[in-house]
Write a structure and sequence with these properties.
Distance between the termini: 55 Å
Shape: globular
Radius of gyration: 21 Å
CATH topology of the largest domain: Aminopeptidase
Strand content: 15-25%
CATH superfamily of the largest domain: Gcn5-related N-acetyltransferase (GNAT)
Strand order of the largest sheet: 2-5-6-7-14-8-13-12-11-10-9
Helix content: 25-40%
Number of helices: 11
Order of helices and strands: EHHEEEEHEHEHEHHEHHEEEHEEH
Number of domains: 2
Number of strands: 14
Structural class: alpha+beta
Largest sheet: 11 strands, mixed
CATH class of the largest domain: Alpha Beta
């Protein structure tokens, strides 16, 4: 790397100009945008007090920002979705101190996207991405901490980092692919008869009591955000007992990423009763959060999955990513797709143990993905 290049750590996303950061991040993934990351910080959803201390890495060429990485110093493993609790417990049982650690990620967001942010048109782009990867490891060494982790990276970044001391890890999610469907019925026509009938019936049941609409832009008001936040809190309390995001975050999201937000809301007798938050990227609709004040059959499938598919078909988007976990998505056309992370471990002995685990885990995930794909609802070729 030329002598004019330098790495710098900043304690807030506001320490770099939005235009400079976004020039590196690109426009295909809203979650790595300055607007999204600043909404997390400005709302207090992300801070040192709640265990996400920003340590964003910048790569500069004579003062010009040419690369960046969303990076955090963490004292826990909550809100990551690529789980390393077992590693932490094993390391601490052996007398080590696992936390704090470095995490290159978008907080609370299990969405694949760029992590080593360098503009596609930048000369020597791959070399600059390597500099960011080695910079993450070097910062972890300087801080004398146990580990550094890059989660939900792109496949190309994943392969690049594997050559820079960051061990590769394979996981899976369930995504829906739009194979050029003109209507939802076109999608159904690709399914087996039994699965097609099941999905039609699910949609009928979901829409019997609730009127559902998909909102974008100025059609989303503060009343919608108030209601959605209530649903989000209600679901968080029931499922996790902890809500990561606060009402201020959603207000800032609506202001700063108005053009990307796709909000699906359900209404019963004139009252909002459920909602799902999606963000639109370049060729993908990303499903993020869901909440409800009622417990009606099939409502979750309709609001979170089928309405997202409707939107993707209408807008000619290639993919719908509906969040982490959920093998129940398979029967609704969301099939297994690889997700990637990379990990650096300071202790050589522990690193060897993790490397062995990752090798075995990768084989198991690959086999499981093949088996789950066979369970999909699509017609079998004769």
């Amino acid at each position: 790397m030329p002598d004019s290049f330098s790495l710098k750590v900043v304690s807030s996303i506001h320490r770099v100009e939005a235009a400079a950061w976004d020039a590196c991040a690109g426009t295909s993934n809203p979650f790595v945008s300055h607007a999204f990351l600043s909404a997390l910080e400005d709302s207090g959803s992300v801070s040192g007090e709640n265990g996400w201390q920003p340590q964003h890495l910048l790569l500069e060429d004579a003062g010009r920002v040419v690369g960046g990485a969303p990076l955090y110093l963490k004292n826990h493993s909550y809100g990551e979705y690529i789980f390393d609790w077992g590693w932490a417990q094993a390391y601490e049982r052996a007398g080590g101190r696992y936390y704090p650690k470095l995490q290159c990620a978008v907080p609370f967001t299990p969405v694949t996207g760029p992590r080593l942010l360098v503009a596609e048109a930048e000369p020597q782009r791959e070399e600059l991405q390597r500099a960011l990867a080695t910079g993450i490891v070097e910062l972890a060494r300087q801080l004398k901490i146990s580990s550094a982790h890059v989660t939900f990276a792109t496949e190309a970044e994943h392969e690049l980092m594997a050559g820079e001391e960051l061990m590769p890890r394979l996981s899976e999610q369930f995504h829906w692919k739009n194979d050029g469907y003109g209507t939802f019925d076109d999608f159904l026509a690709a399914l087996s008869s039994r699965k097609r009938k099941t999905i039609r019936r699910e949609r009928e049941i979901a829409n019997e009591r609730v009127k559902i609409q998909t909102l974008t832009g100025d059609n989303i008001t503060s009343c919608h955000w108030d209601a959605f936040f209530r649903f989000y809190m209600n679901t968080s309390d029931r499922k996790w007992g902890q809500a990561y995001l606060n009402r201020e975050f959603f207000a800032l999201l609506g202001e700063r990423l108005k053009g990307a937000v796709v909000l699906v809301m359900g209404e019963e007798n004139g009252e909002l009763v459920c909602g799902a938050l999606n963000l639109r990227g370049g060729d993908t609709l990303f499903g993020r959060n869901w909440g409800t004040a009622v417990d009606y059959p099939m409502l979750h499938f309709e609001v979170c999955y089928y309405r997202a598919m409707d939107f993707a078909i209408a807008e000619k988007l290639a993919w719908v990513e509906a969040g982490a976990q959920g093998e129940h998505k398979i029967q609704r056309g969301y099939l297994p797709r690889r997700t990637y992370s990379n990990h650096w471990i300071a202790d050589r002995g522990f690193r060897a143990g993790v490397a062995d685990f990752l090798k075995r885990e990768r084989a198991a995930v690959t086999q499981q993905m093949a088996e789950l794909t066979e369970l999909g609802p699509f017609k079998r070729e004769s």
